[in-house]
Design a protein that fits this description.
Function: Catalyzes the conversion of phosphatidic acid (PA) to CDP-diacylglycerol (CDP-DAG), an essential intermediate in the synthesis of phosphatidylglycerol, cardiolipin and phosphatidylinositol.
Number of strands: 8
Radius of gyration: 20 Å
Largest sheet: 5 strands, mixed
Cofactor: Mg(2+)
Strand content: 5-15%
Structural class: alpha+beta
InterPro entries: Tam41
Catalytic activity: a 1,2-diacyl-sn-glycero-3-phosphate + CTP + H(+) = a CDP-1,2-diacyl-sn-glycerol + diphosphate
Low-confidence stretches: 1-13, 316-320
GO biological process, one term: CDP-diacylglycerol biosynthetic process
Shape: globular
Mean pLDDT: 84
Length: 320
Amino acid sequence: MILGPMALQALQSSGVAFRKILSHFPEELSLAFAYGSGVYRQVGPSSDQKNAMLDFVFTVDDPVTWHSKNLKKNWNHYSFLKVLGPKIITTIQNNYGAGVYYNPLIMCNGRLIKYGVISTNSLIEDLLNWNNLYVAGRLQKPVKIIAMNENVALRSALDKNLKSAVTTAFLMLPESFSEEDLFIEIAGLSYSGDFRMVVGEDKTKVLNIVKPNIAHFRELYGNILQENPQVVYKIQHGRLEIDKSPEGQFTQLMTLPKTLQQQINHIMDPPGKNRDVEETLLQVAHDPDCGEVVRLGLSAIVRPSSMKQSTKGIFTAELH
């Protein structure tokens, strides 16, 4: 296992505390990261960083083997599902919700933690195509990479996910905007239509994530913005200008992740027409409501996956 100096996730682990927690788990991880208010300062009700629960995601090449080893090491982490064994746990992980199996409310090294397990292949699929934007959405915000192996496909997918986040945000923003506007839009992508946010979780959550962490967002997205031919990035002033012509928007729409393109096509395609995706995207590029159509497409991805994942949580969490 190596600690990855990643250009795109240039946020190194603050070190020993996270790695000590990692040492309690089987080692075969293609990626491990920590996220949320226990890692990065947030304003608002969940701002007590010292006592906040630490959230982790562990990405594993072979979930059955990993869960098998973890059941031996950490039997008490699992709900009643543990009696069904690692194969059933992996089936539940892969086939229900967003491909993540969570063990919450675990005491580890004196800290309360929650950890999700996802297969490397499922994560790569989500990063590239935005099948459900669940873990891909987490990785559009600053996270702390604790461990990472030399999986080229995974690294490339992580980079593509960030580029897709920028392009999608551009389509929903005006011609000129601030860095903060952009980062708020990006941080909100995975909340578009998320029923937990709609049902009354702190409405200002996105602002609470972005405002104290502008520097971390800049670190994550700075190079992508400087290299993007469709944006003028005035770093000194923290301002950006983008091409909002139909041609510019069409170029952006054509590079969106596949699932988002399909959802846009589904929204715009009248019954019986069966137009191809490219034809629909050309129409959307000329539509004054282009940004709203993109937002509806996002909601169609995020809402079902967040509901399914939360339902799965009842079985993997509460019923110990």
